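Hello forum,

I keep getting stuck at the same step: I have a sequence, I want structure tokens, and every attempt I make locally crashes halfway through. Rather than fight my setup again tonight, could one of you with a working pipeline run this one for me? It's a single chain of 216 residues.
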Amino acid sequence: MKRLFQLAFVLLTVSSLMLAQAGVHERYRLHPGDVLELNYRYTPEFNQTVTIQPDGYVNLAIAGQMHLAGMAVDDAHDAIIARVSSQLNQPELNLVLKEFLKPTFIVAGEVERTGRYDLVEKTTALQAIMQCGGFKDSAQQSQVIVFRNINQDIAEVHVMSLKKVKHVSDLERDVLLEPGDIVFVPTNKLEHLARFIKSTNLGLYFNPVTYSAAIP
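Reply #2:
Ran it on my machine without issues. Output:
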């Protein structure tokens, strides 16, 4: 048990060093479901509150359809100003993030504490697993899977080996998580895994009977 805690400490330390080198503090970026309030100083008749749709777009009174998901609030402000400047004379806009969906990730499979966790800072798949209490003895550490939704229908699949991670160079195969990612640790070696799968097939990986099933 002591050795397990020592290993966990080493892994978390190495992961933290890697993230520190990359820079941890990044501006919040807009996501579907976030609510924005637009207040124009000189043309209040165009003020509105909008919700970013699942496809990342919002429908603005003057600017029309704009894709804001993935932008920082300041960048979204500048993009809107650039769009409406052709219709308004020197517009001044106060753009406020009124509500936001707290980003989360899910860890499932052969870890000590499965569940949904808040993504409050940059977190790798390995750090997420350590946050969940680490691998169970039955875990297949050489084929950890991260599912990432590309859209409502397709999920991208990342397979990595986290079996022997002791140095920063070993973490090149680790994955930095994004909101909505699912980290899955199987029990058996998977025979085949496509790079992209249908999102509706994700449930297959939470049934122990299908751990070793091939993806069509």
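Helices lie at 2-22, 73-84, 125-131. If your local run keeps crashing, start a new thread with the error log.
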